[in-house]
Design goal:
14 helices
Length: about 500
């Protein structure tokens, strides 16, 4: 066998081995599984892991925007007219959040922490000065006190007298600062001495600047990556006590700051939110991209806040038949000291149309009022998010308060928030680097197949050249005459010399 033939056979064998090996690894997904297992070990809530420090102190800036509904026809509404509202905002605050008192528990399988938040006003991102701008809105303290005293033979008349003496009506006009961070309410000041659970000061964000929602215990994700960041207990309890059913009281999912890697489009993402006193779920909506990072958008479907008729699983959120509202609303009185507070999405997005039609100035739009999470499916990292929620007050006729007889039941909007975040450039660069490593590692068999393909091309070229050279050699060795006589012989070398025939001898 010639040296050229030996080389061709060698290259052909290497080509076959590479192709078989590469295709086999692709089918078995060996490298993909190896990279995913490595990723699961990296993304855990333990000291020294890739994500631990950013989990404790998230680097991307978070902004909290407050939008208020200013009541422009108070007297006309009390006389039976449709209320007219004007949205005013945003009043934007930079939200600084970090995990405090972080400690490992249960032999490192879990980690406990407090979610501490603080807020700093940002004038350049706001429409006005919260210390100056005034808003006319529902008098929440008055409605809370009236709801506590309704039906009582002696409490209701007493509260009516106190409201008249302090000038507390159904509505109040306060600055944005007062509504958010607190003011001393005259009616609460009268009630506080008789009830130690009542404070004189009221504010929608009162005592929330520099505070936390209580102790959380989270799964680290070491034992099961699907448990990464999942809440185990809140304030020492593994379930809530506000609602009527075990399903409604269940604490499901994370606190919204961490999600497990290798997300699937078909799964539900659960988030426990202390502000709503419950867990909600989100479902895949569409593929998006943020700063070059691919992401899945998850958003709460209509069924999350659907009525019990539309979604029977939500019946547990009805403490009583009167407190079971329509689709798009959740009465959170059980965790708001009995105050008639109702939660919804902004402008009653995804709610029954009757709540929208009850006002002038309410216009739900998905772009501006939808809550969503954009998560990178490989790492579970949040690349963009908008958490939007609206605070409403239930206004209705209350026994013992004659002035409420002129009112029909109304879910009155007070304000809504938009808590937003977009991944910063430094974090995005780290995610890009990690995704590149995972992609290259997972697709290593493709590289092997590619090398096999190159070798196959080389084999084909070598075979073609070898065949061409053999054909040329055959042409060079064709027959040619060796002497002139043979060349001139028309019989092509068959000449035989003979003597002349003589006469026969006697």
């Amino acid at each position: 066998m010639s040296r050229r033939s030996c080389s061709i056979y060698t290259v052909g064998i290497i080509c076959a081995l590479l192709l078989v090996l590469g295709i086999g690894l692709m089918v078995a997904q060996v490298f993909r599984t190896m990279m995913h297992n490595r990723l699961k070990k990296e993304i855990v809530l333990v000291e020294g892991s890739r994500v631990f420090e950013s989990w404790k102190a998230p680097p991307p800036p978070v902004y909290m925007e407050f939008f208020f509904f200013n009541m422009t026809n108070e007297q006309e509404f009390l006389n039976g007219a449709k209320p007219k509202l004007k949205q005013i905002g945003p009043y934007t605050y930079r939200e600084y959040r970090y995990k405090d008192n972080v400690s490992m528990v249960r032999d490192g399988a879990m980690v406990s922490a407090y979610n501490t938040k603080s807020f700093v006003f940002m004038r350049e991102k706001s429409v006005g000065d919260p210390a100056v701008d005034s808003i006319t809105t529902v008098n929440i303290p008055a409605w809370a006190v009236m709801n506590k005293a309704k039906g009582s033979f002696w409490k209701a008349p007493m509260v009516s007298i106190w409201m008249d003496s302090t000038g507390s009506g159904f509505f109040t006009t306060r600055t944005v600062d007062e509504l958010l961070w607190g003011y001393e309410d005259p009616l609460l000041a009268r009630v506080a001495p008789t009830n130690p659970d009542v404070e004189k000061v009221f504010g929608l964000m009162y005592k929330k600047n520099g505070s936390n929602d209580g102790e959380f215990v989270f799964h680290t994700g070491q034992q099961n990556s699907l448990d990464y960041g999942r809440v185990v207990t809140w304030k020492g309890e593994s379930k809530l006590t506000f609602w009527k059913s075990n399903q409604s009281n269940a604490i499901n999912g994370s606190d919204g700051s961490a999600f497990h890697p290798l997300l699937d489009k078909n799964e539900r993402i659960y988030v426990f939110t202390p502000d709503l006193c419950r867990s909600i779920y989100m479902e895949f909506e569409k593929d998006v991209e943020v700063k070059g990072i691919p992401a899945y958008r998850f958003t709460p479907p209509r069924s999350v806040l659907a009525s019990k008729e539309e979604n029977p699983a939500n019946e547990g959120f009805c403490i009583s038949p009167e407190e079971c509202l329509g689709t798009g609303l959740l009465k959170v009185s059980p965790c708001r000291k009995g105050a008639p507070v109702v939660a919804s999405f902004p402008h009653f997005y995804l709610a029954d149309s009757k709540y929208v039609d009850a006002f002038e100035g309410i216009n739900p739009q998905r772009t501006h009022h939808q809550t969503y999470l954009d998560l990178n499916p490989t790492t579970g990292v949040i690349v963009r998010a908008n958490k939007r929620a609206q605070v409403n007050v239930l206004m209705s006729r209350l026994s013992g308060f004659p002035k409420t007889r002129v009112l029909n039941e109304t879910i009155f909007p007070v304000m809504f928030i938009n808590e937003s975040v977009v991944i910063d450039d430094a974090s995005a660069a780290r995610v890009h680097k990690l995704l590149t490593i995972v992609t290259l590692g997972s697709n290593f068999p493709l590289i092997i197949v590619g090398l096999g393909g190159i070798m196959l091309l080389i084999v084909i070229i070598l075979l073609a050249r070898d065949r061409k050279q053999k054909a040329a050699a055959e042409d060079d060795t064709s027959y040619s005459p060796v002497n002139l006589k043979e060349k001139e012989d028309s019989q092509n070398g068959t000449y035989i010399g003979l003597t002349q025939k003589g006469e026969p001898q006697a």
